[in-house]
Structures are given as structure tokens and as C-alpha cells.
Amino acid sequence: MSDRLPAPSSSQEWVGTVRAVQANYYRVVLDSLSEKGRPDDEALPELLCVRRSRLKKTGQQVITGDRVVVTDPDWPSGRAAINEVLPRQTWLPRPAIANVSQALVVCALFEPEPDPLHFSRLLVQAEACGLTVRPCLNKSDLVEPEQVERWRSRVQSWGYDPLILSARTGEGIATLTTTCRDRISVMAGGSGMGKSSLLNALLPEVSLRTQPVSGRLQHGRHTTRHVELFAMPDGGWLADTPGFNQVELTECRSDSLASCFPEIRQRATECQFPDCRHQQEPGCAVRELEWERYEHYLSFLDE
Ligand code: GDP
Ligand code: ZN
Q: What pTM was computed for the model?
């Protein structure tokens, strides 16, 4: 994630990641000084920062996930100021979060019964946001191994390598941890798929916070959608949106729906026309082949 290591101390500039935003304060975790990543027992230095007035004047917003340049840290008090926001690689609007590069799209294999069209829609939306998409098939403990394999090959035929997970037994959690290394990831998926449970399995130290909260709290601090990044044990960040636990991917736009389907990406260069929409065009390599999600493509294209 860090293409810029902290500058030498003489310049008093440091690069870090905004972990959370609280009113006018930004919690910034500085990049580790060691290129190998942090040792387990050493906490990453986190600073409570304000925006320099120059940034306020230009209207430069600072959001969770931003890579920022911090100057003049006051180490004893843990305070500093943000001097610059580095260019964003990606941007998700709801909740506002920068530089996410991976979407973990979660679907339960049972309870509730998987809905392929809905799952497919979420995958397409994540693609349209420009994210690396990793389908996660959760609750593997509730179905027979043959059924797990059927779903694995089905999702593979969609062009993905799904993670098989169980928040209950811990299956796949170590692989998921590795997948999140060196980047910012978000979880998407309908309610009941097991996103909170997976977060708890991944980040045990956060569990207390994601337990069901009292009614009063639900109407209080949980009505504002805010987002926080949590450091993954092997490096990288996972975004958690307390009280909602889900990002919305619906507002992202892609130039072409076709580019959001790996199946089409693999074949589109073989179409006769470079601007083929893969509907009625002659010489279309995409329409000719039999593939399950062609129906999804046509119905999303209609929308
Ligand atoms: P969310 O709405 O996506 O955050 O889903 P939750 O994490 O709240 O999970 C919904 C329900 O599914 C809860 O009752 C969980 O205990 C259960 N659940 C989640 N993951 C698993 C799993 O891997 N196996 C089983 N058997 N149940 C799970
Ligand atoms: Zn075509």
C-alpha cells in the first residue's frame, strides 16, 4: 500500500493512512518504518490530526482511507496536522472511503438460500467501482461438501476464484486474512450473509464493538454512517461500517457494463466489432458461447 515511505526526519514529513474521521479530527496511522511490516508486538504509531487551514481554504476534504502527508508531529501528545492529501486511487461514496481496492462480496451457501441473480448483481456493482472482486461463499459448515464444490465451480465459471468460508468453524479465515494484505478491503453482501460474523472472526479484538447494541445506542450514535479501518493481522486494512456493516456499491458507474463481467472481458476482443454490445451484432464471440450469466448481462443492460 505504501509507495512512499516516511521521509527522513529532517523534513518532518510523514505519510500515513486515515483510519477514521471524527468530527474535525482524523486518526492517522503512519506507515511502518520497516519495509517488512510491523512486528507483532509493536503498535503502529497513530496520530490525532487536524487539517491545515490551507486545506480547509481549498475545500480539500479528508476521508477515511486517504493517504496523507502529516507534518510536525508532537509525539508526546500524539497530535499532528495534515498537510496534503495524496491522489485517490478509488472513491466509494456511501460511506465515503478512499483507496479501497478490494471488495469481498459475501454470499451464504445456506440460511438464506443463495440468490444467484442478487449475488451476481453485487459482483457487477463491485466491478463497476473499479475494485478487485473476491466472491466469498460463507456458512460452508451448513451444506454438504458436494454442494460447496458445485457452487465453487459455478462461481469459477463466472470468472472468479471464490473463497470458501465459515465464520463458525474458521474455514478459510486464514486465506481471507492473506487476501486482505497490503490493501484496503470492504465487505459487501445482503443482510444475514454473515458479514459481521466474518469480521469478528477476522478481527477478534473488534468483536465487542460489533455485538448487538441496545435500542438506545441504535438510535444514537449508530444512525450516522461512519466507517473505520481496522488493521489486519498480516497487514492491510478492512473497513467496518458500524451499525450497518455494509458498503453501498450502487452509485458507482462504469463506462461499459460488459467490462464488469470477467466472462466478457476474456472474449470481447474476439468480437467482429470493437464496440460490440453483445446483443444482436453479427460475429459476436460473447453471444455465441454458452455462459450462465449472459441472462444477467442482458437484464442489467435493460436497466
Ligand atoms: P450480516 O447481516 O451479513 O452481518 O450477518 P451476520 O454476521 O449477522 O450473520 C447472520 C446469521 O448467520 C447469524 O445468526 C450468524 O450466527 C449466522 N452465521 C454467520 N456466519 C455463519 C457461518 O459461517 N456458519 C453458520 N452456521 N452460521 C453463520
Ligand atoms: Zn460481442
A: 0.87
Q: Which residues line ligand 1 (CB under 6 A)?
A: 138-139, 141-142, 166-168, 189, 191-197, 245
Cβ atoms of 17 and 66 within 8 Å: the answer is yes
Ligand 1 atom nearest 189 alpha carbon: 3
- Residue 74: CA atoms inside 13 Å, Cβ hemisphere, count? 7
H or E element at residue 301? helix 294-302
Q: Which of 106, 111, 197, 245 to mutate to test the pocket of ligand 1 (most atoms within 8 A of CB)?
A: 197
How buried is residue 178: exposed, middle or buried, by Cβ count under 10 Å (0-12/13-18/19+)?
middle
Task: Extract long-range pairs of 6-9: CB within 8 Å, 24+ residues apart.
Answer: 6/30, 6/31, 6/33
- 213-254 tens-digit pLDDT: 444 444 444 445 678 999 898 889 999 876 555 677 777 777
Q: Hey, what's the cell of 289?
A: 458461447
CA–CA separation, 104 and 137 (whole Å): 10
User: Are the CB atoms for 99 and 66 separated by under 8 Å?
Assistant: yes
Ligand 1 center from residue 194 Cα (angstroms): 4
User: What are the distances in angstroms from CA 160 to CA 104, 141, 155, 202, 262?
Assistant: 12, 21, 6, 22, 8
Q: What is the 3-state secondary structure (H, E, C) of 269-282?
A: HHCCCCCCCCCCCC
**Distance, CA 160 to ligand 2 centroid (Å)?**
21
Nearest to 128 by CA among 286, 248, 3: 248
Q: For 58-77, how does the pLDDT look when each residue is reduced to its tens digit (9 = 90+)?
A: 999 999 999 999 988 888 88
Nearest CA to ligand 1 atom 16: 197
Q: What are phi and psi of 17, to 5 degrees?
A: -115, 135
> What is the C-alpha separation between 80 and 67, in angstroms, rounded?
15
